[in-house]
Design brief:
The complex is a heterodimer of chains A (139) and B (193). By secondary structure, chain A is mainly alpha-helical. Chain A has helices at 5-28, 36-54, 56-62, 65-88, 103-138. Chain A has one domain (5-138). Chain B is an all-alpha fold. Chain B contains 8 helices and no strands. The chains are: A mainly alpha (139), B mainly alpha (193). At the A-B interface, helix 2, helix 4 and helix 5 of A face helix 3, helix 7 and helix 8 of B.
């Protein structure tokens, strides 16, 4: 794999910006366009840019496959767990109203938790796919 | 009154620009699609298909669906192009030449004709009287501000009103990732042993 100084420098500038934009999209999804799926894909693309520029080995050091696999499950569990919280508080599954002090704030926190769960799962699954494929290409 | 006509004038201008953009984007999408169908250089096909995804992302943008445009640009033009390129590097760059097969071709043409005939019956895109805008949408648009309290109705529908569906989608994404991991990641571990 040949090395390019320009690529490395640009990637070092670009990756934090992509991550920041991904976080903006997930936390701003309530107000503007965007949402957890989009944010997850954007965050994953930051890791994929890292993989393309610095190589899969370096990316595995930053985000080990085992961690990504675990995070994918954590996102699903966070979503399902939010539903269980509302069950425990006496409402229907995934009814966020009782989570906060008022129904509207309950909806706010419920949606936030659920969206973070979606974002974690989508981001780690996408990055996992790219890393696994890259590994297969080399061998 | 004068101000009012001026505003409708601008609105008409915007609509004209939008339809011009749609025609341009659709023309380029048609060109790229024909290239994808005809070319035998799979590397070029993957690249042009990425361009096709980017064009459809632009199309979604023109149709006021920036969320979908985000996803299409990142997944369609970015990630899936990368995955296809990686897959190509494990197979071959050029498609094998095969005899022209008339039965599948005629079957495809007939199906296409039937589907196009079916679209003649479809309601006009974006028309307010369409069934899709009459069912639950008015309630979401009117009540979600009070019930959910966030401005983005798309997010309230996805995460709250239709929370079960989104949960299913997340499980699908997780399962797909797990499947690929078991298929590809597992083989590598066996080789190391």
């Amino acid at each position: 794999m040949h090395d390019s100084l320009i690529l490395r420098v640009v990637a070092k500038f670009l990756i934090p910006v992509i991550v920041l934009f991904g976080l903006y999209v997930v936390f701003h999804g309530k107000l503007g366009p965007g949402g957890a799926f989009q944010a997850g894909v954007i965050l994953a693309s930051a890791l994929i840019v890292h993989m393309l520029v610095f190589g899969p080995d370096e990316t595995r050091r930053v985000a080990p496959v085992a961690v990504l696999r675990g995070l994918a499950a954590v996102g699903v569990l966070l979503y399902g767990g939010t539903g269980l919280i509302s069950l425990a508080l006496g409402a229907n599954y995934l009814d966020y109203n009782p989570i906060g002090s008022t129904p509207v704030s309950g909806q706010y926190f419920g949606i936030l938790l659920v969206e973070i769960g979606v974002c974690i799962t989508v981001a780690s699954t996408m990055a996992l796919l790219a890393l696994l494929f890259a590994e297969r290409v080399r061998t | 009154m004068g101000q009012r006509t001026a505003r409708t004038g601008t609105e008409q201008g915007i609509a004209a620009i939008a339809s011009l953009l749609i025609i341009l984007l659709l023309a380029f999408m048609l060109i790229t699609a024909i290239f994808v169908a005809l070319s035998r250089d799979l590397m070029a096909v993957v690249m042009v298909f990425g361009a096709y995804s980017l064009l459809s992302a632009g199309m979604f943008m023109v149709m006021d669906a920036p969320d979908v445009a985000f996803t299409e640009a990142a997944v369609g033009a970015g990630v899936s192009t990368l995955l296809m390129l990686m897959a190509l590097s494990k197979t071959g760059r050029f498609e094998r030449r095969v005899e022209r097969q008339w039965l599948p071709l005629s079957l495809t043409l007939v199906t296409t004709a039937v589907l196009v005939y079916g679209t003649l019956d479809m309601p006009k895109v974006g028309h307010p009287e369409n069934p899709v805008h009459q069912h639950v949408v008015p309630r979401y648009l009117e009540e979600s501000g009070k019930e959910i309290g966030i401005p983005n109705v798309v997010t309230s529908v996805l995460a709250s009103y239709r929370g079960f569906d989104t949960f299913g989608e997340v499980v699908v994404v997780f399962t797909a990732g797990l499947g690929v991991f078991l298929l590809i990641g597992g083989i590598r571990r066996k080789e190391n042993r």
